[in-house]
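Continuing the batch. This is chain 6 of the set; chains 1 through 5 are on the previous pages. Same settings as before, nothing changed between runs. Recording input and output for traceability.
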Amino acid sequence: MHRPALLFLLAIAVTGCQPNLPNAPVLNNSLQKELVTKKGSKPPSEGKGICWADDVTPAVIETVTEQVLVRPEVRGPDGALISTAVFQTAASQRIVQDRREVWFRTPCPEVVTVDFIASLQRALKARGYYRDGVTGQLDAPTRRALRQFQEPLGLDSERLSLAAAQRLGISATEFK
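Output for chain 6:
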């Protein structure tokens, strides 16, 4: 009887001794803000340490499928079912987001070394996107894993964005 109460008091005492830790920063889950609509063949800005990649974000199409009543059920004067209702499946599509040609910041070529790619592979592997061995090569499995990581964040590309590299913890480059 006394043991549970003692454990409860001990838990409260230990909790009270913990230092006040700052809240972890909340990351915006979208890379969409990093995308710049492509208006020509030149990147939006230039300079030392500023590198861009271009890509096309695919259109997003929504398909809605519903059952439409073709003929209602028919009941007799006594309420008995004479014929059942007839439904038909109808599908419609609409474009939720148009296809876009975009620019996005990317790590510069001099940074993308074998060690950098190996770090990218390890970071993707730790998050469950990459399952092959760490080779340091930007091969098809690595590009596929990169696309799988970036796509839910709003960038459907197998080219590494600087923002994704920072989220993975493999790039310390600041945005300018």
